Amino acid sequence: GGIDSWVLYNMLNDPIIFNITRTDGFDNVERVRDFTGKPVIEIPELTTDHWRRVDVGIDHIFKNYDVDQLYHGINMNPPIDIFPEFNILSKPFRPWRIDDQRLKVPFLHLYKYHIIDLAKQLQIPLDKTRSCIDNASGDECGHCWQCKEKKWGFQQLSS
To answer: 31, 77, 144, 159: which has the fewest C-beta neighbours closer than 10 Å?
Structure first.
């Protein structure tokens, strides 16, 4: 339901959608199904380690589903040497490289504004995307790391 996943979804040709359910309700399977209008395979949150939840979910998908490749919308964090406001504890871990050849990460070396610009070029609407991880109700708080990154991405394109 975030910008990166939504743009990637729209670039792929009728992909199978997996959703790693979070216990906090963020991007639950119903929201993703409503957002895409497509069936969604729900993967339960298999670890209480927040920083490993996606990796554990991806491993589960490869072990339990007949898929030979999986796409992930992960992208680069804003550079903290230029934007120190992003150097906070809640900053997500986003690796520089992915070694598993089955995992396709086309946005890995892009910043948020590159993906927003790509959406504009491809006329992919972003008005229903959601980044906030602090407010599971749907409204964005504007203060969490992800909300700040989304705002930063749009600001980079407007300057």
So the answer is: 159
Question: Maximum CA pair distance of the chain?
Answer: 46
Are 41 and 67 spatial neighbours (Cβ–Cβ below 8 Å)?
Answer: no
pLDDT above 80: residue 152: yes
If we measure between CA atoms, which residue out of 103, 153, 132 comes closest to residue 1?
Answer: 132
What is the average per-residue pLDDT within 127-154?
Answer: 83
**Three-state SS at 150:** helix
What are the two backbone dihedrals, phi and then psi, of residue 57, each rounded to the nearest 5 degrees? -65, -40
CA separation for the pair 69, 112 (Å, rounded): 24
Kind and range of the H or E run holding 18: strand 17-20
More confident residue, 77 or 159: 77
d(CA 33, CA 30): 5
The CA-CA-CA angle for residues 59, 64, 69, to 5°, reads 60
Q: How confident is the model at residue 4 (pLDDT cuts 50, 70, 90)?
A: very high
- Please give the structure tokens belonging to residue 3: 């910008």
Supply 81's token pair.
């040497």
Looking at residue 105, what is its pLDDT? Answer: 95
Q: Could you tell me what percent of the chain has a pLDDT over 70?
A: 94
